[in-house]
Predict the 3D structure of the following.
Amino acid sequence: MKVNDISRCYQCGTCTGDCPVAWVNSEFNPRRIVLNLQTNGHILENEAVWLCSMCFKCLRCPRNVKPVEIFSNLRKLAIANGVDNVGTKLVKAFVEVVKEYGRLVETRFMMKFMGFDSLKLLPPSVAFKMWKAGKISLSAKKTECAEEVKKLFEVCGHV
Amino acid sequence: MFRYAYFPGCSAESSAIEYDMSTREVCKKLGIELVDIPFNCCGTHIVEEFDECSWLALNARNLALAEELGLDMVTICSSCFYNLRKANAMIRQSEEVRKRINDILGKIGRMYDGKVEVKHILGVLVDDYGIDGIIRNVEKLIEIKASPYYGCLILRPEEIVQFDNPEAPRKMEDLLETIGCEIFENPFKVDCCGAPIMLIDKKTHLKMVKKILEGAKGADCIVTVCPLCHYALDVGQAVIGYEPKIPVLHVTQILGLALGIPAEKLGLDKNVTPTEPLLKKI
């Protein structure tokens, strides 16, 4: 698996200055994550990489290290190696729903990922308004693409 | 003349139902024909990180559906836009990838030759249909202060989406000025709402939302071009109890108002943050 050449990073911090996650959460610091990778190598249980929102602002990196791609590659490694954390759990739930329905049925995905905790995500008044407006649907029907999608996953080796 | 395979994306069936409604209404009014296809999920970066083969196959199937109709594709979701375009570029640029993906598509009786162009609804409106065409259809000027919010994947990575200037985009401003709006600049209009991490770290996500809302303070409404951005800002402000509330409209909702389409047909009663105060101003 291709991992970007992190040795090119000279710790200027442009990525962190540009990162909208880092602006509001100092625990997510792309520059520091790259420094840790340089010093300690890849750590599969690096949960911080799941906080990257894939917004691609850090593409302005003057050394073309592209932290967004590094974090994506680290998530791929975690998934491929069966690491169990909140991020890989989300991926598993998402893929299972798409595989079954062909599309992302939002309520099924939430239930699979969070169980009944998903009911606490929205204040009851907001959830009720959305349900009334048809924006939270509790039923899920398989779309006509479901069989073909299932087959595509199978052909790619995911039964 | 204007005819596209329509890719609304998964959220159009539930959380962004009014984005789909307003897109269909606006296109009907302008004479842009949207052809429904039995699309599947684009997979987003989540399936891509799970397994590139499956992700590419999901997108190739969608592209094949449009190619079978001999049409280009239009999507209303920035994330679908990015994923479809990325997969399309990979298939177009490499004969080896094209062969590999067609071996897979062959198993479901389909093929994809790389002929489809993937577009975003904002691009179809502004570039294909054109501002001049829209002006001719405006029935009512929407004279309010509108604050465009682009978010991420419609603009970045530039080499994949090739949509607008990623630092200083203009397409939404051009459209909104055409229908009579005054542009309210949000300094965070190309920053991320954090929707992709809302289930990983809700607190961080909501802080990102708050920052964008503060950037739009003083505007009559925020205008979005992605169902995920819309959810983040419209539902997000209700979750944090943000005041003063600021209505968040899909770009097709505000355009629809200018085209004289009734508010309920545009689903403006389905937005979580009430839109009535805005409707009273116009």
